[in-house]
From TrEMBL:
InterPro entries: FUR (IPR002481), WH-like_DNA-bd_sf (IPR036388), WH_DNA-bd_sf (IPR036390). This is Transcriptional repressor. Gene3D superfamilies: Winged helix-like DNA-binding domain superfamily/Winged helix DNA-binding domain. Pfam families: FUR (PF01475). Transmembrane segments: none annotated. It comes from the Bacteria. The lineage of its organism: Bacteria, Pseudomonadati, Bacteroidota, Cytophagia, Cytophagales.
Length: 141
């Protein structure tokens, strides 16, 4: 896993720091979106809140992770599975996020496509977010 983390940081032209490696390790070990507080909790207070926030922002800016809006107005982050790059998150326009009302986890449904739609004249789409809520496959057993 350590080699994959280093290779990933290198492929996104990111300097290898303990914080970046730690945060990327957290994301690579989870299948669901994480809030800032979730990331902090996983790192057992190794890094201060501002450093974690700046690292998350850098990862979003570079296309390594993407923001996931949740139903409570907060922001979570998920690892990009596409080959996203700085300023070009390919998935913003083409996949759905699912929040389980039982366990509370939010996951990317990469193969569920957001239906196409036409905005009224004068409107320009910059980003599209679709959050579906229900019971995930783990809780639905």
């Amino acid at each position: 896993m350590k080699a994959a983390i280093k290779d990933t940081l290198k492929s996104y032209n990111l300097r290898q720091t303990d914080c970046r490696e730690g945060i990327l390790d957290v994301f690579m070990s989870k299948e669901h979106a994480l809030a800032h507080a979730d990331v902090e909790a996983q790192l057992t207070e190794q890094f201060d809140r501002v450093t974690v926030y700046r690292t998350l922002k850098t990862f979003v800016d570079k296309g390594l992770i993407h923001k996931v809006l949740d139903d409570e107005g907060g922001v979570k982050y998920a690892l990009c599975k596409d080959n996203c790059h700085a300023g070009d998150h390919k998935h913003h326009h083409d996949h759905v996020h699912f929040k389980c009302t039982s366990c509370g986890l939010t996951t990317c449904l990469d193969h569920v496509v957001i239906p196409s739609f036409i905005l009224p004249e004068g409107y320009k789409r910059v980003e599209t977010n679709l959050l579906v809520q229900g019971i995930c496959k783990e809780c639905n057993l």
